[in-house]
Amino acid sequence: MNFAAVVFATLSVAFPAEKQKLPCVERTYVIGAVEAGFKEPVVLHPPAELAAPESPVVPPVTAEVHRTGAFIAMMPVVHGTNTFTVTAGDMSLERKFLVSFPDPPPDPNAPPPKPRDPYADLGISTNATFAPKPPRDRPRGEITVMLDAGHGGSDTGAISPHGWKEKEVNLLQVLALDEAFRAAGFKTILTRSDDSFPALYDRPKLAISKKVDAFISIHHNATFASTDPRLSRHTVAYASNTNGFELAAAIQPYVASVMAPVKNIGAQMRSYAVCRNPVIPSTLLEIDFINLPDGEADTWEPERRKKVADAIVLGFLDWLGR
Ligand SMILES: [Zn+2]
Predict the structure, then answer these.
(1) Prior bond of 293 cis (ω within 30°)
(2) Measured between alpha carbons, how far is 263 from 170 in angstroms, rounded to an integer?
(3) Could you give the angle at which helices 242-259 and 302-319 cross, rounded to 10 degrees?
(4) Which of 51, 116, 216, 223 ranks highest by number of CB atoms within 10 Å?
């Protein structure tokens, strides 16, 4: 056995995590990392539970290894417990996770849950038709943008191959964005500047109470377990009402231009808690996919974060008609 390999080499699996429960899927992506520049193949040995006596042998899968050491492969799974092994040279790592059986169909006679209006305590209805206009006539120093780093605390968000958490990635991007907005002469307020977790509706409510002019939430995406992130990488801006959509549509082309050749799917309507703000124009930007080795490597670059931040400010200026 190579002593150096034992002492210095590393092999980790970020997803699926040990004892993680996946919803009903037929296959999952597996992401993890070896040391950058590792030359030997990284091989996934599919779950032993797949090898029923009557079923054909499922061959091992060789992972795609990125220059950063991040690796990815798709692996078939069974319902119930799955125990698979990853080998890389002398190293071997066993991982156990669960795939749940499909949920029972919902009871057709059960009364539908009554939606609670999250803004009721502020005397505002989510369905209010109040339509704020961009503050076109105000000087920059009198315009405030709220910047929201998605997730935080025990809510990690997505996980990258090296185990980097989306909550950390989002915060780094928000700090770069804060700098860019201030450098351009705007005022900013952050929903969090540390590893705290403001409750989902407390974020838009803070935007309302501080009377900010716009709300921008920053996220980094991941695919569902069964979807190969290599086929899904894109950048997108979401909104949940017309006010937000104008903001999203103004910003996203600028973000897309610095993210190219990553696919841009533009501004889209999607019902997200932080965007369902009837009073403040709000958008949620999914900058990139961090469960993908390429996405993780690009997101890691401070230079890319700066470019994205500058692009968002340019889009914001466009929204203001400047
Ligand atoms: Zn997120």
Answers:
(1) no
(2) 20
(3) 140
(4) 216
| Predicted confidence (pLDDT) per residue in 222-270, tens digit | 999 999 999 999 999 999 999 999 999 999 999 999 999 999 999 999 9
The structure's pTM equals: 0.91
What's the 285 CA to ligand 1 centre distance in angstroms?
9
* Domain limits for position 286: 130-319
- Dist. CA 309 → ligand 1 center (Å): 17
Q: What is the pLDDT of residues 129-141, one digit of tens each?
A: 566 789 999 999 9
Q: Are residues 87 and 140 in the same domain?
A: no
Collapse the DSSP code of 237 into the 3-class scheme (helix H, G, I; strand E, B; otherwise coil) and give the result.
strand
Residue 155 sits in the same domain as residue 51? no
Question: How many Å apart are CA 274 and CA 150, to the nearest integer?
Answer: 9
Q: Which of 59, 79, 99 is the last residue of a domain?
A: 99
Q: Is residue 233 part of a domain?
A: yes
Residues 304 and 253 reside in one and the same domain: yes
Place of tokens 């605390």: 153
Centre of ligand 1 from the C-alpha of residue 156, in Å: 8
Residues whose beta carbons lie less than 5 angstroms from ion ligand 1: 150, 157, 219
* Count of domains for the chain: 2
